[in-house]
Amino acid sequence: MTAAKQISEEELWAQVSEAQRGVLEANHFDVEEFMALRQAYLSGELSASKNRLGGEVEVPADEDVRELPGRDSAEGRAFIALGEAAISRGEVGIVVLNGGMATRFGGVVKGCVEVFDGLSFLALKARDIGRYGSAARMLLMNSFATAEKTAQHLRAHDNFGLNTDQIIHFNQSVSLRMAPEGELFRRDEAQNVSLYAPGHGDLQTAIRREALAEFRRSGGKYLMMSNVDNILATLDPLVVGMHVDASSRGVQMSVEAVQKKPGQVGGFVARVDGMPQIVEHFRLPDASLKDALQLLNTNTFLFDADALEEQAELTWFVVEKTVDGRSAIQFERLAGELSAVLKTAILKVPSTGDDSRFEPVKRREDLAQNRDRLKSLMAGRGII
């Protein structure tokens, strides 16, 4: 790497247009944090090669993983009753991750994209919540790239049936991309710098600004987080009830995980120093563990709301992206790492069949290939 010179905050701001500075300041850009991360990157202290996790990483034990019971079993009915009661009391909220840049989807605001029959991803999330009347709330984590268009989309469709006070909007932060050499990455002939939203690991920082307190003031106790593009991660009383039950025994976070497909990688469910948690594939200390670890998290988590009150120090990772055909560097954190600091339970959920809870749509081809299946499953759950 060619060493980039050290710059002051004043020199950094001199490279940013007035309009872009306004966007950065309005969206919680932490210039001191960025400068520290840039320095760590330039010194080699922060690098992709140093993402490896220390400690003993092994296959999870049988007792670490709970499978969903049959809905008609005595256990299943008990969990469903527990979940329905929590939802009806207004204790459950849905956090929808809606701030991503959707680079593999053409850079659009994915939540506003039609899935089928004129219904967008956000429409289907809202209709899911709407099945429970005004009891549940939707907490939308937007970004500088999605907030305005998302608000317009919801207004244009009367919030898809939700009351205005059922939706809490909050924005995650924004940061600056760099070229691999450490200079600011520029996107166009006007030499504008390139902004990005720094990953779903921003959840805890962003939600603690105001949204979490607002949710808890209304009696909220449990939050289910999912990606806007995974519409099968529906508000299911069975899943909610399993977390409520686990919470009564000290669990603060429940992780949904599926059986991986051959060759698939992502956030694996593992044991680290004897405790279950999510470990991203690039953090595994031994590459052979990719074959031994069989469960992948779906980025759908359930939290005790009060467990998010105390800020956790999550790891910043160096991520290389291709932007406009060129390599760009950005720093991101991952929400799954909260499993390293919160007492965590693993829920093995299906990714096939009528009860599937996982079908991410990362590319337009994914949507084209799965549209009919998604429509059928949404109909079966009473969402359409």
Describe this structure in words.
- The structure is a single chain.
- This protein has 384 residues and is of the alpha/beta class.
- It has a single domain, classed as Alpha-Beta Complex (Spore Coat Polysaccharide Biosynthesis Protein SpsA, Chain A), CATH 3.90.550.
- The chain contains eleven helices and 17 strands.
- The strands form five sheets. The chain has an eight-stranded mixed sheet with strand order 2-17-11-14-10-3-6-7, with helices on both faces. It has a three-stranded antiparallel sheet with strand order 1-12-13, with no helix packed on it.
- Strand 4 and strand 5 form a beta hairpin.
- Helix 4 packs across helix 9.
- The longest helix has 17 residues.
- GO terms for molecular function: UTP:glucose-1-phosphate uridylyltransferase activity.
- Belongs to the UDPGP type 1 family.
- Keywords: Nucleotidyltransferase, Transferase.
Brief write-up:
The protein has about 375 residues and is α/β, with parallel strands linked by helices. The chain has 11 helices and 17 strands. It starts with 8 loop residues before the first helix and ends with a helix.
